């Protein structure tokens, strides 16, 4: 009887020691742990079980649980949608969307039904949903509280040629030079007293929804500086190096142009609509991967339309080497006369299926392929075509560290895949570096910060007063009921 009791005590002691050991090996971090200061459409944070790094146990996801709840203004439960994303490498992404003003917010994290280190996390409100128009009064203070850096190398590069601008004069010259309704479209924006106005030029101006949305988003969070800017709504950058450097903001840059770069409309929209109407974003990519590295097929995968001649060459290479490639065209538009030779077109596959393979190919479309951020995040080794086009973050990428470079004509593509097969550990390290880069530079917080820092820096380049012309359209915030200040909360509610 004594032996049985002793044995039971040892088992209990071992269990306690194992649990305490695991507690010390859990790393919890991310902007979602500052829900009052960092307001996003979907707040998120990471939970890393460091003892599982580089390996995966299917039981971990069942053993780890999340609860996030709060109290609304009406003293009922806050409406909160919680999403647990399993990266299958010992790390989870927890994201949650708040639909009400919450007086408090409680985040509970469990491993095998027991709170893990630091849990529960309790926050005094009000914690606001993204839709609340509750701007911070001081821009620089807000930048610091939001966790934004003071500047970015690309921003400094793009803006260093401008100083003391008279935007009335600049806008007139831009309209005269670039207003070609059939081929270019752009919008002149004016921000005054945190209200947004615009006038658009060109035949196809539907993409103004993307520039509208980021300005509206930011103006709900902070009082924007008064400023004017011209946003190019097309994919191609406009301001050639050989011309006068007119200040035009674009989503893509090139070696031959000097446009001021913003994050692409694609990654910006996936940020603003996170846990909304978009299904592809940097976070969901990481949480939708089925296979870890060792289980993935040793092939290079690609799908896309025929928007560049090199994409046809890619199909030639893939057909000649079916054991190395899985590549197909999904649509013909630019080379319809080649459909008989390079078709039939194949149906689209889920972007997440790309990561059933170890290697992903990134080839330019009409300009830079805007899928690159998602490829970097997916934990595969990216084969990136050499390109004159670039996005706002390309200057931070390093060949052979974050991706494997491929000649523009793809003549060494086969050689690169064979190299990756032969050097699996090195290929995996590059894939891990790429995902780390995406998580340190391309998550929603980073995209929001880049825009905010860019607009702040830009506003200081303008010397002219902002005026709202009669022919400009006011871009209003959507109506949403919330309580921005504790003074607005009814007296019978205690904080």
Automatic annotation (TrEMBL):
Catalytic reaction list: L-seryl-[EGF-like domain protein] + UDP-alpha-D-glucose = 3-O-(beta-D-glucosyl)-L-seryl-[EGF-like domain protein] + UDP + H(+); L-seryl-[EGF-like domain protein] + UDP-alpha-D-xylose = 3-O-(beta-D-xylosyl)-L-seryl-[EGF-like domain protein] + UDP + H(+)
Subcellular location: Endoplasmic reticulum lumen
Start and end residues of each Glycosyl transferase CAP10 domain: 223-465
Leader peptide range in chain numbering: 1-23
Pathway in which the depicted protein is active: Protein modification
Residue spans of the Filamin repeats: 18-125
Keywords annotated in UniProt: Endoplasmic reticulum, Glycoprotein, Glycosyltransferase, Signal, Transferase
Keyword Signal in annotation: yes
InterPro entries: CAP10, Filamin/ABP280_repeat-like, Filamin/ABP280_rpt, Ig-like_fold, Ig_E-set, O-Glucosyltr/Glycosyltrsf_90
Top-level taxon in the UniProt lineage: Eukaryota
Family from the record: Belongs to the KDELC family.
Function statement: Protein O-glucosyltransferase. Catalyzes the reaction that attaches glucose through an O-glycosidic linkage to a conserved serine residue found in the consensus sequence C-X-S-X-[PA]-C in epidermal growth factor-like repeats. Regulates Notch signaling by glucosylating Notch in the ER, glucosylation is required for the correct folding and cleavage of Notch.
The name this protein goes by in its record: Glycosyl transferase CAP10 domain-containing protein
Protein species of origin: Chilo suppressalis
